[in-house]
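Whiteboard transcription, Tuesday session. T.W. wrote the structure tokens on the left side:
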């Protein structure tokens, strides 16, 4: 039902944070934040797993 998001700790937690930013505020905001963090951000290329 999409209520929970988890990630590994450390630098990998930025992926979950950027995902939330994109979900809440849009792709351009997430890309802008990622650029400031020097992270290439393409949600479609992010490895992920959805459990049901």
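and on the right, the sequence the group agreed on:
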């Amino acid at each position: 039902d999409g209520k929970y998001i988890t990630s590994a700790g450390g630098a990998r937690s930025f992926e979950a944070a950027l995902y939330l930013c994109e979900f809440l505020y849009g792709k351009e905001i997430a890309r802008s934040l990622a650029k400031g963090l020097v992270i290439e951000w393409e949600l479609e290329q992010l490895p992920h797993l959805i459990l049901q």
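Someone added at the bottom: The two ends are 8 Å apart (CA to CA).
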